[in-house]
Amino acid sequence: MIESRGPLSPQLAASKSKNAYDNNRIAALSKKPIRKRPGAVVRFTALLWGILSLLFGSLSQAQTQAPAPTITMGITSVGPRVDSGNAGLILAQSASLTQTATLKSLSFYIGTVSGSFDLALYDASGANGSPGALLAVSGPFTPVSGWNTVTMSPVVLNPGSYWLAYEVSSNSMTFNVENSNGTLVWDNQAFGAFPSSLPTSINRQTGGWSFYATLVPQATDSVTLQWNADAVTTNPGTNPVGYHMWVGTSSGNYTESIDEGNVTTGTVIGLAPATTYYFAVTAYNAAGVDSPYSNEVSYQAP
Hints:
With about 300 residues, the chain is mainly beta. About 5% of the residues lie in helices and about 40% in strands. The protein folds into 2 domains: about 15-65 and about 220-300, Sandwich (Immunoglobulin-like); about 75-210, Jelly Rolls, CATH 2.60.120. It has 2 helices and 19 strands. Strands 3, 4, 6, 7, 10, 11 and 12 form a 7-stranded antiparallel β-sheet that branches. Strands 2, 5, 8, 9 and 13 form a 5-stranded antiparallel β-sheet that branches. A hairpin with a 7-residue loop joins strand 15 (about 240-250) and strand 16 (about 255-260). The chain is elongated.
């Protein structure tokens, strides 16, 4: 936690006369606000009106951010046994997710290639934890020998049990499977479309194919920031009516703006792990004109 404190500037008009801050700057820099919730506390000190003046023309919109980490569910190794003859079936294997995450891709290892392939994801809301609702489908594609990875439409998944499913158009296509762990199920199904749900009575046995999902964990870190209120003056036109919190991943380059209203605290959530964030605050008057930035503080998400 980083902590510092001091008074904010007593006047707001200086930003307009010295730095030409106007609504064009606000429109150019403001982005979709980041969601907010409680977290660690960071405090801001004073607005330094003369020293921290920063012209719009010197700001960059570039943002640097660490790539989002990924996790997997399913079997990521190549199984020791060969399976084939699966045309005319829908087949699925169990998988478990331990944290909230967004689906990124599905990957399947194929030995001998023949015909077309299709992948899908089901939840486990069926009878006795069987495949229930269809959550995502890749669409038919022509596979290659080896690992086939297909980017999926993003779906947010909660911790729990899921089923990785596939269909194949040719009995000649071969797959690698292991029969010592997990559960696999199958039922009759013509190739070309996945049913919205599977029958309650399906075949099942121990095992699983070389088949897994890649997901991006949902960021859970957050930070709460506090600052001193700007002093009220005798001129209503220069008095602050609210505050903007500015956020970026490089020092002095703020690519997100949060309108906090007329309060002196705000919380930012959804911070990417192992990423350093930089924060500053501006006061704004009734005309929407911002002051110069406060001093900057930083926070590194764990």
